[in-house]
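Quick illustration, no need to memorize.
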Amino acid sequence: MYFLRLKFGLKQLSVLGSVGLLLGMVTAVSAHTVTLIESIPEEGAIVESAPDSVRAVFDEELLEAGSTIEVFASSGTQVDAGDGAVDLNDPNHASLAVAVPDLADGIYTVYWQATLLDGDVSEGTFNFTVGQAAAGERPFQPTTASEAGAAQFNYLLLGAAAVFMLLLLFLFNRRRQQALQVARPPK
């Protein structure tokens, strides 16, 4: 009889823990994303001379806080003026802009992060080339916040699962010891 009670208690606990972990995963993937509808320069464009600024235009209004745009050389060096933000001259506040100095010939990667009005965050990259790229030159591939966040979430989920399993083992062992003490006759 005791074993059935123990099994039922552990079953309830494991179901509750599983539901909690699933809810955490559903919450993490329920965010919606913004769509990049235009970039200046265009994705993959080859321009003769460097633009004065780089722009990314989206299909939704962006929050200033958390929205940014950066330009990187193929070496991974950030080459923009550091002023990447929501373009306040855009009446829809649906674009990001950043000033760039006179860029040398080469491939450049634009990384953008857009925070939407509901707090969801989207990010992405696009590339353009100024002049003639060096032979074998490849675009820089920045680690995006979502990739880093996904790794952190996976570690958090793994840690929660480990704690849950340790709790189950502790409870099982504790109940087993109590059952053994009840089963032993007093001395």
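Residues 145-183 form the longest helix (39 residues).
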